[in-house]
DNA sequence: ATAATAAGTGACACAATGTCATAAGTCAAT
DNA sequence: ATTGACTTATGACATTGTGTCACTTATTAT
């Protein structure tokens, strides 16, 4: 987490810093990103950066988490629309991310994150499915929104593992799209094939 | 790939270099590994390293690939034992890797690789399932060893996606074991739950 | 006004990377 | 044996990057 000085910053300065960091993390993956570039673009001295963040990673994960939170809202709405059908909701989320990744130029950020998914990064994304902090400290358990009757499970433990499987597969498909430079259509087709295999089971 | 000078090296020198590199990649993940440490341990000048490898990554992937090839043999045997049942064979492979990871000290190498899986690393591991170069240039297609009758698929394309799903899930389980520091027993139990869910399908 | 606390600053020490000019070694042909 | 073409070895160097620290400046409380 950023240090408290970061949150004490005047809005415009903080925003400029965020913007500069996003720019750098959009340019190259985390490992190649340079603090020098960030502070230069933000017009602050090097020492200040360390006043606000522990290090490069701290800044990166803060930004990634912020972006992910936006996607949570979409996911919740989609889950409601689909009457608690988790597989359908995840399909919607996959489409959203395809769309996002095609659109804005500065969303190379997401691309760079996907191309270097480590378990830490995957964990951040996975938070979409756990707990939602919607505005006024009201916590909604997404777990409870999911219609478990639609799933082929006998206990709560199996439900957890279904979520694990779904995230692994969804991720892998997103990563593939970029590492293999596949068209949106093809990526979606691949993903749907896999989702259907998951639905019906791999074994005869 | 290493440069040709690397392969021209006298055996003992090459082996010492390999050993030193493995040591360094066992100490820390790729991003933190230092060429300085490798050349120091191998007793060669810095410039020589670049005579043999393009860079750090080149050396890392070369070593990773070498290790992975060893696991291929095991996988093939296991696939035969299980009469082409791919899910059963993958379960065996998972057990093998758990065992390997528990045993030798220098197999922190594998651990460091797993904790920082990117699509490149996943791709190297995935090669286990594609083509096997067994000793005398005889190529065996693993694909053909798999009994597709046991799978719930209608075409070759779906078969490919089943492999995708299985690798994603297997990986995720291995990574989890180390990122969450789970016991072998628990890791295996989790993995088996997911494999069974995959078998029977997620949806009612 | 003064003290205390927080924030800002940039030079610095240190470590890492990849390159390059030069030295040393190998080997076949004369 | 000598030459010369080619391959390999070497380590100093330029460059870039990280995180720290002593010191300055601003802000807030008393």
Which labels suit this protein?
homodimer; 204 residues; mainly alpha; Arc Repressor Mutant, subunit A; two-stranded antiparallel ribbon; 11 helices; DNA-binding
| Overall geometric form of chain A | elongated
Rg measurement of chain A, Å? 19 Å
Largest interface: A-B, 40 and 40 residues
- Give, in spatial order, the strands making up the sheet with the most strands of chain A: 1-2
> Low-confidence runs of chain A (pLDDT<50, min 5 residues)?
135-139
Write down the domain tally of chain A: 2
N-to-C order of helices and strands of chain A: HHHHHHHHEEHHH
Helical segment count of chain A: 11
Q: Give the tally of β-strands of chain A.
A: 2
The end-to-end span of chain A amounts to: 48 Å
* Oligomeric state, counting identical vs distinct chains: homodimer
Mean pLDDT of chain A: 92
Let me know the largest β-sheet of chain A. 2 strands, antiparallel
The percent range for helix content of chain A is: 55-70%
Broad structural category of chain A: mainly alpha
Q: Proportion of β residues of chain A?
A: under 5%
């Amino acid at each position: 987490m950023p240090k408290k000085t970061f949150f004490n910053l005047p809005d415009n300065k903080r925003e400029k810093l965020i913007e500069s960091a996003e720019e750098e993390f959009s340019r190259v993956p985390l490992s190649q990103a340079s603090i020098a570039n960030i502070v230069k673009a933000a017009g602050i001295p090097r020492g200040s950066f360390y006043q606000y963040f522990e290090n490069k990673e701290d800044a990166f994960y803060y930004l990634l988490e912020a972006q992910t939170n936006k996607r949570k809202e979409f996911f919740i709405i989609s889950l409601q629309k689909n009457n608690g059908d988790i597989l359908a909701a995840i399909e919607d989320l996959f489409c959203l991310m395809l769309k996002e990744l095609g659109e804005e130029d500065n969303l190379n950020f997401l691309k760079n994150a996907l191309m270097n998914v480590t378990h830490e990064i995957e964990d951040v994304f996975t938070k979409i499915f756990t707990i939602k902090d919607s505005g006024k400290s009201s916590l909604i358990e997404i777990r409870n929104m999911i219609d478990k009757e639609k799933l082929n499970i006998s206990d709560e433990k199996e439900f957890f593992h279904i979520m694990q499987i779904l995230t692994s597969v969804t991720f892998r498909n997103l990563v593939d799209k970029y590492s293999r430079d596949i068209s949106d259509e093809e990526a979606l087709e691949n993903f749907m094939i896999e989702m259907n295999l998951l639905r019906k089971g791999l074994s005869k």
